[in-house]
Amino acid sequence: MIGAGTAGCALAAALRLRGWSGSITLLEIGRGPGGRTATRRSRRDPNFALNHGAPLFNISTSPEPRLLEPLRQGGWIAPFNGALASLDGEGRLGTAQPDPLSSGALWQGSPQMDGLCRGLLALAQQHGPTTLQSGTLVRALEPRSDGRCWQLYGSEGQPLLECSWLVLSGTLLAHPRCQTVFGWPEVPLQQAATQLGEQQLCTAATALSQIESTASSNLLLNLGEPAAAAWRQQLWRLLQFTAAAQERWGIRRVSLQPMASGRWGVVVESSAAFAERHLQVYGSRSSAAQVLGAAPAPEAEAQVIKALDRNLQLALGLSTAGADRQLMRWGAAFPQPPGLPPELSLCPDSRIGFCGDAIAGLGFGRVEGALRSAEALAERLLPLLRSGA
Questions:
Q1: How many CB atoms are located within 10 Å of the residue 236 CB?
Q2: Fewer CB atoms near the end CB (10 Å): N or C, the chain?
Q3: pLDDT of res. 285
Q4: Cα separation of 18 and 123, whole Å?
Q5: pTM surpassing 0.90?
Q6: Which domains, and CATH codes, for the chain?
Q7: pLDDT averaged over every residue in the chain
Q8: How far is residue 236 from each of residues 112, 157, 186, 222, 261, measured CA to CA in Å?
Q9: 170-184: string of b/e by CB count within 10 Å (b at 16+)?
């Protein structure tokens, strides 16, 4: 399986809880599980923990995904009980506005957001051999000529894994943006589909390649105890910016996160329009730079950080003096409809499946969609795994 974000980890857990005991391996680009629900940590500072992609997740429709109950029982998730508020274009605070990302039941990982994926992996590992290989970039997908397995290759062309079934839990290897990020001459899934020549896979690969996404440039602030005093007094923990406020300041929402030793984290998520203007600026500490080899652009990075920092202070009237600042760019933060039709999420003749928030259906574009698509794929995939088909 490629990707250990919410969808990949959820698929592993869903297969295990449905009785599959065979080997499962997850290959993940990042330094650990989570994807956009990961938690930024520091080897130099064990007390630093910042939810830099998503401060919470929501379940908007009943019945809820089946995986939530064992996650609750294991203490891996907890209700999000922080106050939500909104900011309008005149800088006035108001009540929370209707928002697809914060409607319904609100949850967060425990003790940090990455508890969601760590819990899913723990559920999987309780019931069968489940391996996570972090910091692993898959460069090529090669279907065997007999159609019975896949060979995966790394960034230097080295063999990584041979598997009888392959699942992509994200769209990176299926979308032309991988050519922009890596400078690759081809899209790996498109190349593999052409080589295999199976119609359903070719249709799925084309549909995935056409999914548009909006980006988000996230400013991460680490405020020491003295500088955090004014932020600590805020009555909200998640602040939504209205359309007018986004246009004025280029910010979509801000989350406040208490950390150890009296420090506070502030995560500033840019508007889609702001991120679009700065698509080539990844952030020197991001996976794109540290794992994927994206070319650094320190001057451009400094300018983006300065712009978001300045706009944050102007919008809220709060100082960020003394803060440690980082930039994290999510290139495909929010997939846009219509997404991959669910009937194309499993291609039995090619022994490949797809899950994630880019699959059309309930929760599309959100963590809920990642969970539901993983559970749906597990239901369809399990009979084939058991039969050896």
A1: 17
A2: C
A3: 62
A4: 12
A5: yes
A6: 6-38+114-211+336-387 (3.50.50.60), 213-334 (3.90.660.10)
A7: 94
A8: 18, 49, 46, 18, 21
A9: bbbbbbebbeebbee
